[in-house]
Design goal:
The complex is a heterotrimer of chains A (362), B (111) and C (335).
Chain A (H helix, E strand, L loop, with lengths): L18 E4 L4 H4 L3 H12 L4 E3 L8 H5 L5 H18 L3 E4 L2 H16 L1 H15 L8 E4 H7 L1 H6 L15 E5 L2 H4 L15 H8 L3 E2 L14 H4 L4 H15 L6 E4 L2 H18 L12 E3 H8 L17 H7 L29 H9 L1
Parallel strand pairs in A: 1-2, 1-3, 3-4, 5-6, 5-7, 7-8
Helix pairs in contact in A: 2-14, 4-6, 5-6, 7-10, 12-13
Chain B lengths: L15 E2 L6 H9 L11 H5 L10 H9 L6 H5 L7 H5 L6 H11 L4
Chain C lengths: L3 E5 L3 H12 L3 E5 L14 E2 L4 E2 H14 L3 E3 L4 E5 L2 E4 L4 E3 L2 E4 L3 E3 L16 E3 H10 L12 E8 L15 H15 L4 E6 L9 H10 L4 E4 L4 E4 L5 E7 L4 E7 L1 E6 L1 E3 L3 H8 L26 E3 L9 H20 L1
Parallel strand pairs in C: 1-2, 1-9, 2-5, 9-20, 11-18, 12-13, 12-18, 13-14
Antiparallel strand pairs in C: 3-4, 6-7, 7-8, 10-19, 15-16, 16-17
Classes of the chains: A alpha/beta (362), B mainly alpha (111), C alpha/beta (335).
Chain lengths: 362, 111, 335
Amino acid sequence: MMKRRSWQEYQKEIADDNYYYARSCIRQNFFPGSEKAFIDILHNDLGKDLLDDPKHSSCTGIGYHSDIVPLETIMTVVARQFSLMNDAGYKNFVTSCITSFGIYNEILATWEEFPETEERTREYLYKATGREFRKPQSLAHTSDVVFHFREEIARRARHLLVNATTGEPLKVVEHIGCHYAKIFPKSGIGGSEFPYVLAGMIESWGGEVVDYPERRHCCGFGFRNYLVQANRGYSIANSHKKLESMAPYKPDFIVANCPGCAMFLDKWQYTIAEMEGTTYGENGHGIPVLTYEEMAGLVLGYDPWTLGMQMHQVDVEPLLDKMGIEYDPAAKYLGRNGKYIGKPASAVVNCCPTDTIYDIRE
Amino acid sequence: MAAINFGYTISKPRAIDLDRNNLRKSDEILHEMPELQTCIGCGACTAVCTAGNLTDFNFRRTHTLVRRGEYEGIYAEMNKCMLCGKCRLVCPRGINTRAVVMLVKRKLGDF
Amino acid sequence: MKKRVIVIGGGIAGMQTALRLAEQGVEPVLIEKEPELGGKLRGWHVLFPSFTPAQEVLTELRRRVNDSGIECRMSAEVCSVSPREVVLSGGERLACDAVVLASGFTLFDASIKEEYGYGIYDNVVTSADLERMFNEGRVAKADGSAPRRIAFLHCVGSRDEKVCQQHCSKVCCVTGVKQAIEMKRLFPESDVFNFYMDIRMFGPGYEEMYREAQQTYNIHFVRGRISEASPTLEGRVQIKAEDTLTGRPLRMSVDMLVLLIGMRANDDNEQLARGAGLERARSGFMKPRDLFLGNVCSNIGGIFYAGTISAPKNIGESLNEATAAADAAARYVMQ
């Protein structure tokens, strides 16, 4: 087990119940089952109260970080989310996006340091919507909440993060989104250098955390750095650097707590494989990339296709087999009510190189 | 392979990687001229450099790169030096800078 | 009856102060919180720039203190001071005519700089750990093997806003050069790199030693602060910095990363200052009355400073200052 002397110094209050849930903009496309899984785990497995409010909007973080949405605007949008939370009678704000989490933290800190900006935001919100707001009592990222209940989840575990054949713990690379704790180290469990939020889940659920040279490096998402095609070479190079650095440790999977990181670590593996023929996992495959909700869902015995894992670029079946999880291979591309949702073309990242050449010629 | 044109390629890292760089030539140079290691990066050589005032030649940076095992293009770079010797006059560490130019060119002709 | 001056701290500054006071016909009482005299120097191996064994200095000072029959109160902690009385933590009150504070400094705790993984990664050690290894005669990686590539990082806990230590600790630069040479002597085949922001060679023979490290020992000096350390599969430490003189990021793995930890003010300076009305500098060190004509005097008559209680200093400076503080205290009590 990795030594982390410092993580206990970075603790924060995480509410035990009654959450107001703010979704991510992009996760429902790339990891569509994850947010649903979070709601189901909280409602059904843990018996918690969580409101999935259809009225809330994007925090506009992507627009903000791309210099499209001005600071005053994003502050007003955030104020509106808080107002909606007040309306619904909640005090504990949880967000399922690291970008949003960073933005909520930054805005709350800005209001704290510069009360006049808060006053202006109140004015803007009132003028635009006639609303007023109170700030949340607690702010957490959804991974904080899963971390908070990690032992309860462990007690209900149907599968552990263990190789079912050998009994060895699975080796897991955790990747923390930059804006989780790099802006405010105190806002993250374990701080910014040795964050414990995902590592704590992995350890509680029987896995082994892999520390590797580029662990703290950014995935390269960076908003304008991938939104503009001309900049993508730089963006992908960051994930490339991380994958090169972690591969020698032979991780069984990667888990990320940020929408962008999970997407990039998964999808860039496809791109790198197509560009250079390089794959980083076992037997010429890529390394599966999971969200923490998917990881929790598998541990709790959720069906991988209900969790939306067929939408991953890197196939997860080798990992499911390793964990001894039963699943119906034929149901992979069946959506609701058994409707066929289409099957992606074969990709280098999911095949042995020889298969690929055959596939491409075919 | 490379069946798909993505419109971009993976950027190459800019970092000096001392695990990858071969320091053999650099060690040879420092063995012949240990005084080069005493450079304190003051930049006086570059400030007075005849070539450096007219081209992008930077003697201080160039020999520092050599000491880090970055040899590519160094020979061509050192060729910009006119061997006027003014840098040697100003070096506070008394490094024989002209001899450094000659030595580096002798050792790194293949790069 | 002889006048009595209490000297707080039994390191080199405290011992020298007490010796000088005794010479001046004043009765010194030396109070030390540890069970033996010597302070921080006890953990040091050899001293820059002459490679004099620390024990030579220590043994001689202790012998002189012993021979002079100075009263030493060992394992005694001070909880408050005033010019006429020192109160020990057990409640005992010691009357006096003046006080010299010589309680020194605290070594910066390197684990606060989390990015370097001190206490987490094997083979990340501090300069103090390295001195201990030199003393024990066993310098090696955690697995017992000899290091082939060693990096020193200057300014750990010095000149760093992030850890509230804005001051320069002064002696770490030369310590880094000294230890780099010692490592090169122990492991001639190894490559040694010093990562620095500025090299501050303020003392006699220091600059010469720096040049010797470069020219004779081929130690590489890279101007750039290491940003993080992480483990490699081979049990080495990967470090990242900017090689600012070439303007490019640099990374490498090393067998041993030595953090040159700084001197910070003692935590109990605050309590001492509050109790006695003493002024402290922003760095937390005690503030002398003025930096030129009153540099061993505090702002309170009858309380004096010797050594690193007022700022980072080297051994020679601390000893000189101890003599000056003793003289000032003697003058004060003889008035």
